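As a warm-up, study this chain.
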Amino acid sequence: MRARWVAIVTGVLVALAGCASTTKHKGPLVMAETAIAQAERSDARELAAVELERARRKLAEARSAVREEDYEQARRLAEQAELDAELADLKARTAQSKQALDAVRASIDRLIDALREDLNE
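Now compare it with the structure written out below.
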């Protein structure tokens, strides 16, 4: 009876260790997925399409490396995907800020022109 109990406990521990190992390797993938989702919310599809596509491609390669149990390569690719996604996010937000700044400048120019016209009348 004791041998059976030890076998059951050992089996459970091995299963849990396998789950922990799988979860450990998925952490960088989750981080990359999160960064890609953030970039998409920042309109990177339109404003930083090259960087976003590069991040997606590297994430797909990282997933493939996990399936092949090449965890070191998977981690490197996932980290690169995360950085590419962050770059896409920053590039998109920078473009949005520039557009907003351009709109403010145009509005200021219109106000200055209107003031000049009022002063000349």
